[in-house]
Amino acid sequence: MTFAKKILITGGAGFIGSHLVQHFVKKYPSYQIINLDKLTYAGNLENLKEIENAPNYKFAKGDITDESFIQELFDVHQFDGVIHLAAESHVDRSISDPMSFIMTNIVGTVNLLNAARKNWEGEAGKLFYHVSTDEVYGSLGAEGFFTEDTPYDPRSPYSASKASSDHLVRAYHHTYDMPILVSNCSNNYGPFQFPEKLIPLVINNIKENKPLPIYGDGKYTRDWLWVGDHVEAIDLIYHKGNVGETYNIGGNNERMNLELVHDLCDVVDEMLGRDAGSSRALIHFVKDRPGHDRRYAIDATKLKDELQWEPSVGVKEGLRRTAKWYLDQSEWLERVTSGTYRTYYEEQYSSR
Ligand code: NAD
Ligand code: DAU
User: What is the pLDDT of residues 222-274, one digit of tens each?
Assistant: First the structure.
């Protein structure tokens, strides 16, 4: 079967990656999508069950830090494009183990860039799209927004590793003419997010009557984006973005953490038929995250003006959908937290 385009999506078994892979496989049957993922604790092929047998989908288990494996993959598949999401993504883990972030997020990205450069050798019509984070811009006070021109000021090992990879992607554009795109996005939420991140962690703990840990004073603010809106933005940018450019993606949905957790308590109480406000009693203020960024907020005007993208799901509706999904998916939750889900898939994909 010949395909109009062959696209490598890295990190496609993770939270955002699995939504993106499903979207591309279903929406573009004429493209072949190759999903490269190491299947770390955050990667779960169960998220891709719906499309795992689609004729335009292939999975490749591998590590982006493995230079010869990556080079071979490019030689075999002759990709037209790369959408790079594979990363270590959790800030708290970067504080306890920075080196794995340096290896995957920086060295892994350079490996992919080198393989693309060698394989493409200046051919027209190729594209390397790097999916990044708003955390590279640092921390805001009560006012203001991050624009594409905000100077970089990363403050955690995670954001420093993502900032470094962004710089390297742009450096390959300037130095070697690599056709690139970068987007920097705010906090995503929705189904299939590993329950170490605030929203799924809180929903699960409410359900189980466990304490809800709030770091510091709980007045830290994030700009929440429904994962499906992020996927739509990536699709648009990949197809219509101006090569060499950066686009900010945001939800226009700022919430202080404590406010967000209150909302989640109320939604879950209602769904579980508990007394209104009862889960708020589970809130526990705990020791703050070291170097915790106070506020992130995105100005996504460029994306709106150039590509007519706007978020479609508000945080109220998004939290309801997310809470419902997690409450309905007790078995998924149990499997990803126990690790037993690996056995089946690791048997299937024990070799590349
Ligand atoms: P995730 O942690 O859910 O998934 C990461 C995926 O990458 C996993 O499937 C994992 O197995 C894979 N992976 C990790 N190391 C690898 C390696 N060495 N080789 C191959 N695969 C490897 O992450 P996510 O939340 O889906 O984030 C995806 C991307 O989007 C990341 O680059 C992240 O920085 C960026 N991002 C995330 C958010 C967010 O709110 N989650 C916001 C903005 C940007
Ligand atoms: O802004 C985009 C980034 O958003 C992405 O690049 C990261 O990959 C993603 O993990 C996310 O980073 P955050 O650190 O903002 O997400 P997290 O869910 O870990 O935390 C959200 C906020 O909630 C943050 O202020 C820390 C706080 N928090 C988090 C946890 C896990 C708590 O108060 N208690 C918790 O238990």
Answer: 999 999 999 999 999 999 999 999 999 999 999 999 999 999 999 999 999 99
User: Does residue 275 have an active-site annotation?
Assistant: no
For residue 84, CA distances in Å to 64, 304, 313, 328 come to 10, 23, 25, 30
Compute the chain's Rg from CA coordinates.
20
For residues 272 and 201, what is the distance between their CA atoms, to the nearest angstrom?
17
Band (347; pLDDT cuts 50, 70, 90): low
Distance 296 CA to ligand 1 centre (A): 19
Q: At what angle do helices 157-176 and 109-120 cross, to 10 degrees?
A: 20
Q: How far is the CA of 270 from the centre of ligand 1 (A)?
A: 32
Domain boundaries 5-189+224-254+292-313, corresponding CATH code: 3.40.50.720
> Nearest bound ligand to CA 91?
2
Q: Spot the catalytic one: 57, 158, 189, 345.
A: 158
Tell me which residue of 221, 220, 224, 139 sits closest to 188, measured CA to CA: 224
Q: Residue ranges of the alpha helices (H) in 105-191? A: 109-120, 157-176
The model's confidence at residue 352, banded by pLDDT at 50, 70 and 90, is very low
- Determine what percent of the chain is predicted with pLDDT higher than 70: 96
pLDDT at 29 over 60: yes
What are the residue ranges spanned by the domains of the chain?
5-189+224-254+292-313
